[in-house]
From TrEMBL:
Metal-binding keyword on record: yes
PANTHER family: HEME OXYGENASE
Keywords: Heme, Iron, Metal-binding
Positions with a binding annotation for heme b: K8, H15, Y122, R170
Pfam families, sorted: Heme_oxygenase
Coiled-coil parts of chain: none
Domain of life where this protein originates: Bacteria
GO MF: heme binding; heme oxygenase (decyclizing) activity; metal ion binding
Any one of the GO BP annotations: heme oxidation
Organism: Rubellicoccus peritrichatus
Protein name: Biliverdin-producing heme oxygenase
Length: 223
């Protein structure tokens, strides 16, 4: 079985777990609050900045070159979104604990096993391509955003045909010159990547719950 097919099949359970994280369920229901959305964007900024820096280091590596596409890069789009919500965001933002673990993993792999970056590229970019337009619409509606403002992350301006590009990307995955052992490592790393995303989503949800608790305590104390 081709690597792209194995990745889809063998990460399905972890993928479903990520989709069922409370934060994501709230996002899909349109009940996400602006603070949580900005926290997500901020975390993703550090994630994609790290991933893309490391991918650039290995752009000519034969184990990554078939899936290297600058059109997928999200760092600039995330910066644009964050500036829309707060012009001075970069002077205040820093990666959360979950995101420090996530980006630390990516940097480590870049040093010791660059081919495993393909797993993180697969999990994030194919997910962005697959659900981007739906999530953009949900975010725009639930947060009452004007079209194109605060949702650049979901827009792939340099890709004309998303379905065709996804096929191209999967073909690149299948062309990676990996041994069977390395293919298995990539699959396991992709599963791990989904769990790193789950940790980040749970962290956002936990922060939202704590904020609500603090508001309730303040209101109770003032009563």
């Amino acid at each position: 079985m081709e690597l792209s097919s194995r990745l889809k099949a063998e990460t399905r359970q972890a993928h479903t777990m990520a989709e069922n994280a409370s934060f994501i369920r709230g996002f899909l229901r349109g009940t996400m609050n602006p603070a949580s959305y900005v926290q997500m964007l901020s975390g993703f900024y550090f994630l994609y900045q790290t991933l893309e820096q490391e991918l650039l280091k290995h752009a000519d590596n034969p184990y990554l070159k078939p899936i290297f596409h600058w059109e997928l890069f999200r760092t600039d789009a995330l910066r644009k979104d964050l500036e829309f919500f707060n012009q001075s965001w970069d002077s205040m933002a820093e990666p959360s604990s979950a995101m420090q673990a996530y980006t630390g993993r990516i940097r480590h792999l870049s040093e010791v096993a660059p081919y495993l970056l393909s797993a993180h590229s697969y999990v994030r970019y194919l997910g962005d391509l697959s659900g981007g337009q739906i999530l953009k619409k949900i975010a725009s509606n639930s947060l009452k955003l004007q079209d194109g403002f605060g949702t650049a992350f979901y827009e792939f301006q340099e890709i004309d045909d998303v379905a065709e590009f996804k096929t191209l990307y999967r073909s690149g995955l299948d062309a990676l010159p990996l041994s069977e052992e390395q293919r298995e490592e990539v699959i396991q790393e992709a599963i791990h990547a989904f769990h790193l995303n789950i940790d980040f989503f749970n962290e956002i949800e936990g922060n939202a719950v704590r904020s609500l608790y603090q508001i309730l305590i303040h209101q109770f104390s003032a009563a």
